[in-house]
Amino acid sequence: MVVWITGASDGIGAALVKEFAKADYSVVLSARRESQLRQVAVDARLNDDKCMILPLDLEYTEDIQKNVEKIVGRFGRIDVLLLNAGISQKGMAENTLESVERSIMEVNYFANTRIVKAVLPHMKAAGGGKIVVVSSIIGKFGGPFLSTYSASKHALVGYFESLRYEVNADKISVLIVTPGFIRTGIAKKAVTEDGSAFNEDSKAQEKGTEPEKVAAKIRKALEGGRKHLYVGGPETFTPMFKFVFPGLFYKIWKKLHKL
To answer: Strands 51-53 and 26-30: what pairing?
Structure first.
């Protein structure tokens, strides 16, 4: 089995590489930083014949088709496409530059749809496959200072929920993963209103679920045929709480953020 993991250089992505390597998958690792990808492969104890390093900057995806052909040329197929890469945000919607908004949407949404379109013909030709996309709890409701990030994750959910119906007859499954607070440091790497690095960690994420636990649950959900997976702590119940008690939800949410 061959799995292609984007955002594989750290956080959930690096944990996923180790998880699928343990299960004897051949793993394609993609992210911007090749040196970190190689270190993750070493840490996962991947043999050269089970590993392919494929550097990829999701803000510039003109060569997606060529990269897909490289994977198929090497392994003959892509059984699992695991779309994990993304960037976060910290800034007021009113002050966020449009160029920053477009960059976030390019990485978090459009890059993923382009990859899917390039991979689908190969999965169909092979008689099936599995697609996993990592969204966010903020893809279920909005959050202050996260407007474009939240929009991009909402867009992912809508797109892949719809895609699931379209590819069902081709024996291609779609799993949408909704993480809560995970100990990844993604908040520290968030972009601010002008595109500079936020460079400050989130206390909630510092106390969040370990990426290794998340990776294990994702593989189990994938192999179990799940359509949706909420993973994290008590925060994963927030969407249901909002649905049942919307008025109370907004009061608590405002109070938590001192708005």
So the answer is: parallel
